[in-house]
Amino acid sequence: MQGKRIVLGIGGGIAAYKTPALVRQLVAAGMDVIPVMTESANHFVTTTVLTTFSGHRVRNDLWDLEAERSMGHIELARWADTLLIAPATANLIARLANGLSNDLLTTLYLATTAPTVVAPAMNLEMWNHSATKRNIGVLETDGVSIIGPDYGEQACGETGPGRMLEIEDIVSHLLVTTDPIDTPMTGLRVLVTAGPTRESIDPVRYITNSSSGKQGYAIAEAARDAGAIVTLVSGPVALPPPKGVQQINIISAAEMKSAVLDIANDIDIMFGVAAVADYRPTHSEPHKIKKMYRNGSPMSIELVENDDILASVAALSDPPYLVGFAAETQSLVKNAVQKRERKCLDAIVVNDVSDHTIGFDSDENEVTLLHAHGETTFDKSPKAEIASKLVAAISELYTSNRT
Ligand SMILES: Cc1cc2nc3c(=O)[nH]c(=O)nc-3n(C[C@H](O)[C@H](O)[C@H](O)COP(=O)(O)O)c2cc1C
Predict the structure, then answer these.
(1) Is the bond into 149 cis (omega within 30 degrees of 0)?
(2) Which of the following is catalytic: 1, 21, 110, 156?
């Protein structure tokens, strides 16, 4: 499933300066956002920043001939799962209430069958005016959800009702009104680690492993699509960052541990998919080690054990629901059961990395999920499919664990 598709209508009020942050948070919450600006909104926020944060070309013109070759305004109206208008100016509210369609945004409002959510923002006298009150009443009768405004200090220096609802509250509103059946992880905070780590020998050499990061990235995307707010802590991989996921890039196991522990207290579910190096060189040389002519005699690198990241998270006073991954080459289930118990994990996913058609660097996987109440095997299929099934199974286990 794709993330919820939001057309974000932006009116020409001072609160429009907050919309880049709003777009960022909606995207981080797994939503796909296309901004549509009124002409006045262009005075308060740039299309450049909105394009950058949304990843979509901002639409601000009904007479955009390129888009209209395929009836772009109707396509956009059909594309939206929700039309969110924030900030909604007094003028925009009046136009919507009266069914005017004299620009792209008001035309979309009439053309879409998606639910419309309006976040008014204006000076308190404008908000208190009987015309605005009347127009808000009409919109409510027409089935529009009005969220806010907040009470507080306004840009004009006055204090009262009229401030746009805080961005976090707008995002929460969209999350709770997002179809809870289709999105089993709605509102949950999920941490995924992915990829290998690199343990430095000297500035140009390191110890690593063959993890491609594909399964971890697929799980981050599946959790995002299930409605979770996802943070991905990634080792060095050749994959594009998943959209709508907050990504923290690290190199070594120590950096991964520190990034994970920084946020683990605020996380509901953690998937430890990364292939974290068990050992690192005792000393990482500051300068490139010169080749020594040893006449064939061996050279050795002393290794020291890395901290176990999942075990460190499990040792927290209120750990998240912990899902570990085990790449095994023999006695798969027996080894995984032991690993789950040793590390105090809620669940473990094991795969056979001796089979080169699955696991490391391949596009497919076949895994067994083991937990306190049993085990399930997910037959060989693309990693994205395995990820969706695992996310669905884990969200069920998580829910039954909490109730
Ligand atoms: C600096 C400035 C700030 C404004 N802030 C607001 C505002 O917060 N809310 C509002 O309803 N109108 C505000 N206005 C007035 C709107 O910009 C004006 O009514 C405009 O026609 C709205 O167009 P739109 O609804 O198509 O975006 C502001 C105007 C200026 C010049």
Answers:
(1) yes
(2) 156
